[in-house]
Amino acid sequence: MRILVAGATGYVGSRLVTALLANQHQVVAATRNPARLKRLGWFDDVAPVTLDVFDPNSAQAAFASSRDAVGPLAGALRTGLDILSTLTPKVRTA
Questions:
Q1: Fewer Cβ close by (within 10 Å): the C or N end of the chain?
Q2: SS3 content of the chain, % helix, strand, coil (to 5)
């Protein structure tokens, strides 16, 4: 599966990326600053993408990338941001 991991540089996201790669998944690693991904041991094994949940254009671009699943969105949940409202119907149902 091709999985977008939002917050890939965070505590939960970075561990999720490691587990997904260990299980042979393709990972799109999303973060506000993709340069920060370089400090993680799996940088060469992921497709980095910029995602700022407070920027609708950034969210639209990140979620439009080909993928089968998305996780986690802890930052969006914590702030009460309705990230799904920024996405196209195709992306919301993917």
A1: N
A2: 50, 20, 35
Distance CA 24, CA 11 (A): 21
Q: What is the pLDDT of residues 31-86, one digit of tens each?
A: 889 899 999 999 999 999 998 878 888 888 887 776 677 776 555 544 444 544 54
Here the tokens at position 10 are: 């965070």
Number of domains in the chain: 1
Q: Are 47 and 74 in contact (CB under 8 A)?
A: no
Separation of alpha carbons 45 and 43, rounded Å: 5
Structural domain for 81, as ranges: 2-93
Bridge-partner residues for 73, per DSSP?
none
Q: What angle do CA 21, 27, 61 make, to 5 degrees?
A: 170
Residue whose tokens read 């998305």: 70
- Of 49, 94, 47, nearest to 69 by C-alpha is 94
